[in-house]
Amino acid sequence: MQCSTAISGTSFAANAEAVGERAIREYPVAEAALAFENIPPKWYPPVLHRCMALVQLEDNWDTYKGRRVEVLRADAACHLLGLLMSEDTPIPQVVPTPRGNIQFEWHLEDQYLELEVLAPTRVAAYFQGPEEEWEEEFGPDLTKLAEVIRRLG
């Protein structure tokens, strides 16, 4: 699987346009959103399964008016990982946010990374490692984020 370091604004929405709004509601998080060169990497099935479960949450899932996760947001989140992760990247925790987004978290011995997918082309990230700590929002250029995720594996 190749890792791309930039997102095009149409790549995430293309699946929705091709399938149609009704089909997206009926078939949450279409697996066809990602095309792997061979078989999917080992992290993909558990992440996809968790994203599909999060789409089933209703509004107020946390009893504090947490918004439900939209199918297109879940699709965008899975696609983002397909662009950034390699076969060796550890499997992240996948959690909903109160704003209806999906957040990926890696809690490793000396590194901590959180990625919140805000929109198909916007990601908020927080990283803490042995020699650096930063918080940043990324647009289409994911070069720095791809490098940090590569170092996790």
Provide an overview of this structure.
This protein is of the alpha+beta class and 153 residues long. It is globular. The chain has one domain. It has a five-stranded antiparallel beta sheet. 35% of the residues lie in helices and 20% in strands. A hairpin with a 4-residue loop joins strand 2 (102-107) and strand 3 (112-119). The protein has helices spanning 9-19, 21-26, 44-55, 71-84, 143-152, and strands spanning 93-96, 102-107, 112-119, 122-128, 133-138.
Distance between the termini: 15 Å
Overall pLDDT confidence: 79
Give unreliable regions as ranges. Answer: 1-33
**Helix count, DSSP H or I runs of 4 or more residues:** 5
Q: Using the CA coordinates, give the radius of gyration.
A: 15 Å
Strand content: 15-25%
List SSEs in N-to-C order.
HHHHEEEEEH
How many structural domains in the coordinates? 1
Shape: globular
Percent range of helical residues = 25-40%
Can you list the strand order of the major beta sheet? 1-2-3-4-5
Report the count of strand segments: 5
**Coarse structural class:** alpha+beta
Strand count, sense and closure of the main sheet?
5 strands, antiparallel
